[in-house]
Structure formats: C-alpha cells, structure tokens
Design goal:
Nucleotidyltransferase, domain 5, alpha/beta, 6-stranded mixed sheet, about 40% helix, binds manganese (II) ion
Length: about 210
C-alpha cells in the first residue's frame, strides 16, 4: 500500500480557533535535534485519524499558541504518540503543557510484540499495516521557514497511521492480558518526561545503586 496524505494543512504559530478535536488525536513533533534542553521545537503535527493532518510551524520561538494549548490541555482528548517520552517533554518545555492522557505506540508495541525488538514507527507500519513509510526527511532542517513538500509529507505521515497502529496493538495487548501494564506505563510517562526535563535522562530511579 502506498503512503497516503489526503490533506495537509499548515499553520504558523497556532491552530485557527475553529479547529476542534474529539476523542483522540495522534501527535508528533519535529525539533532542531534530540537534546530537549537545547534544541528548539519547530513543528507539532496532529491527526484526528481521518486522513487529514494539521501542522503547526513555530517561527521565531513564538510559543503562545492559545488555541493549540487549549487542545493539548483538554484531558477528554487522548494523545497518541510514537515514543511519547520525547514529545511530551519537548511540548512541556516549550508550551508549558503536560499532554495527558497519553498513549504511546512504542511502549504498546514493546508490551504486545515481545517476539521482536523492532519497535520503530517504520517497523510498526510495515508489520501491522503493510505500509512502507519513507523516513528520509527525518534528519532535515526543521527550523527552515520554507519547508519542502517532502518535509511536510514526512511530518504528516508520522501522525497519519498512529490511530490504526493503536487499534492493532490494543487487540494484542488485550488478548495477552496486559492492559493494566500498558495503562500504568502510559501514566508514568508524565513523570518520566519530568525527570528528563530535570536532567535525569539516564537515571533509573528503580535501580539498586
Ligand atoms: Mn516525526
């Protein structure tokens, strides 16, 4: 199956006030790098699961975004990420919002697919949805004001399949009786992200030492 991008909507610095979401949204971020204390947030991508994607591009470190913040702060909306730990921390640092409740497809995959150690988004698209995800723009310059079409398609694709992946993983997790573990891990992600922001990325608080 080819990659699909029905409709990409690009906005600068905030979503328009009339955009509303219900139930669950898939979220991803693009940043200048993977260092949460130094690398700035460039994009937040959102999908409602229908095939449309909404991209907010942050220019000139302008992170006011009241409309977007209202959505992120709405606890009636489940936020689905792939590797939520990073996105949740970077959103908290730049927008001051702790996204919750959280669902993470990487953690769900680790709990569900214990027969493999391949839990990247590309692996999940391939194994669960038979979709070949193109990750070529992953390391491109996301701070560029004029994003290329390839970058926009890449950014949109990172959120487009998360609802479907979640559905597939939830079935396995339920079959294997691991819902309580998934729930507890997702809840702990808020704390894990806070530890990362405190500089405790490599500290395991459960470890005996
Ligand atoms: Mn991404």
């Amino acid at each position: 199956m080819a990659q699909k991008v029905k409709n990409i909507k690009l906005y600068k610095n905030d979503l328009p006030i009339n955009i509303k979401f219900k139930g669950s949204i898939a979220l991803d971020t693009e940043t200048m790098g993977l260092n949460i204390s130094n690398d700035r947030l460039c994009l937040i991508q959102i999908s409602d699961g229908s095939g449309d994607s909404y991209i907010v591009q942050f220019l000139k470190n302008c992170y006011d975004a009241p409309n977007l913040k209202k959505i992120l702060d709405d606890e009636s909306i489940l936020k689905i990420f792939h590797y939520a730990r990073f996105d949740v921390a970077i959103i908290k640092k730049n927008l001051g919002i702790m996204c919750k409740p959280i669902y993470c497809t990487k953690i769900a995959s680790k709990l569900a697919r214990t027969f493999t150690d391949r839990h990247g988004l590309k692996d999940l698209c391939k194994d669960l949805l038979k979709i070949d995800l193109n990750k070529q723009s992953q390391t491109s310059d996301w701070g560029n004001e004029n994003l290329t079409e390839n970058q926009l398609v890449y950014a949109a694709n990172d959120v487009l399949y998360l609802h479907e992946i979640k559905n597939k993983l939830d079935k396995i997790i339920e079959r294997e009786g691991k819902q309580h573990l998934a729930k507890a891990c997702f809840k702990f992600l808020e704390t894990r992200a806070e530890f990362d922001l405190l500089g405790w990325q490599d500290k395991d608080i459960f470890e005996h030492k």
